[in-house]
Amino acid sequence: MTSRFTLRQLEFFVAVADAGSVSGAAEACGASQAGVSLAIRDLERHLGVQLLVRRRAKGAALTEAGSKMIADARRLLEGADALQSLASATDSRVSGTISIGCYVTLAPFLIPPLLDDFASRHPDLEVRVFEEAAGEIRDALLDGRCELGFLYANDGGSGLDSITVQTTRPYLILSADHPLATQDQISLAEVADSPLIMFDVPSARNAAKMLADAGLTANIRHLSQNIEVVRGLVARGIGYSIMVQQWPSDTSFEGRPIVSRPIADDIPERSAVLAWPERSRLTRRAKAVVEFFRSCPPR
Length: 299
Fold this sequence. Notes:
There is one protein chain. The chain is α/β, with parallel strands linked by helices. It is 41% helix and 23% strand. Strand 1 and strand 2 (59-62) form a beta hairpin. It starts with 6 loop residues before the first helix and ends with a helix. It comes from Streptomyces chartreusis.
């Protein structure tokens, strides 16, 4: 069956959904506002549904039908881009553009090898990465705004396939002069009554849950979304903290020493994964990223 709409019309539709306005979409696509509006109306006429609600001075919003169709529109555009890349590439070359989401707390450990080691292997592939909260990354994967996303396994939920790229075990950090700093390992019960300096992001809030699962109550002294504030307060002896990712430095931002110790309790490991929508067919460029992290996991 011959399609009655064009890829350019789909591109305009997706651009309006992303920009929230016809003017923003026109600027992003290098087109006129009148041209974008005409293309959207023509697309709606061919599909027989209204895709957008246009409000004067308030931009444009997806209708119920538009919300249902936006992910498929993105995938059609990605498929067309992949076909173009395949047609112009040699057997060993990966080209085009790939969008990848990364949960903010994983970004320092996963984005550098992605934009350096991986990108150097595939110089013809443009890698675009955005950092967001876990829920936003999951939503972006499911509605087609990105092809791949880095998350913690327990943040993914249903509807995603993934490979594990990194597994870590939570541990404690203390000031160098903390009374427990000389021990080889420390139980949660030994620190539960002490002030907890908590990294205030969803994945790190598991510190309080970890204590609760052990029948203990967290004595939260301070919450911060800045990891260096957490480490700085711990280094000054204000409290302890529970971390997931291994930080490469054993000193705070101020240069004060920090001691890391294993948790003696039987606690679950945390797995970082590279995820994509289940039952979706990975593009050649997405397969290249998956294979890279499968064969070269970050240290």
